[in-house]
Amino acid sequence: MAFQGPKIPFESFLRNYNDFRLRRWPRLVGRTLLAVFDENFDHGGFTDKVFIRWKPRKNDTENRGRRLGDGGRQQGRALLIKTGALRRSLRINYALPSTVHLLAGSPDVPYAGIHNEGGPITGTASVRSFERTVKGKAQTVKAHTRTLNIQMPRRQFMGPSAKATDRLERQFFAELNKLWEQA
């Protein structure tokens, strides 16, 4: 006499799991990673195992934005957010079962890489001729070039992260439990 226990719906589970693994999971990974990286803009830093706050703007409270020609509107503004273009440029390039590829930046946002990685900015900038008033007298400044040598601090907003890995693990096992309950 053979033992007849409750039937385990393994074939149904396997079919659902393969569909999940090949179609839904890569897109879910991409969306989860985008959400984690978007949170970095809210928190003003990057979380790997620990939170690493972004370096503040140079003389943020002192210059009141005068160097940027905006009359002090930079003071107190969140880092890496002026128009929101950098934050909105985060997107999923492709999501395959073996690889999920995310992108930041676009032709309109070429500065995404230097902000995420940091590094030197060198080159020359052309300054057009302009007029300015000094002590009530108008002065004309001739057109000239200016040499740039700036060290951009690293303000990482996306990359490998223990926080993202933990969230993906929890999400994977929650989805696996759902699949098992559906079978």
Summarize the SSE layout with pairings.
Blueprint (H helix, E strand, L loop, with lengths): L9 H34 L1 E3 L3 E3 L6 H4 L21 H4 L2 E5 L4 E4 L8 H6 L1 E9 L2 E5 L2 E5 L2 E9 L9 H21 L1
Antiparallel strand pairs: 1-2, 3-4, 5-8, 6-7
Helix pairs in contact: 1-5
Order of helices and strands: HEEHHEEHEEEEH
Shape: elongated
Separation of the first and last Cα atoms: 28 Å
Strand order of the largest sheet: 1-2
Oligomeric state of this protein: single chain
Portion in strands: 15-25%
Low-confidence stretches: 62-69
Domains, number: 1
What does this structure look like?
The chain has 183 residues and is of the alpha+beta class. It has one domain. The protein has five helices and eight strands; from the N terminus they run αββααββαββββα. The strands form four sheets. It has a two-stranded antiparallel ribbon. A two-stranded antiparallel sheet has the order 3-4. A two-stranded antiparallel ribbon has the order 5-8. Strand 1 and strand 2 form a beta hairpin. It starts with 9 loop residues before the first helix and ends with a helix.
Give short descriptive properties of this protein.
5 helices, alpha+beta, two-stranded antiparallel ribbon, 183 residues
In a nutshell, what does this entry contain?
The chain has 183 residues and is an alpha+beta fold.
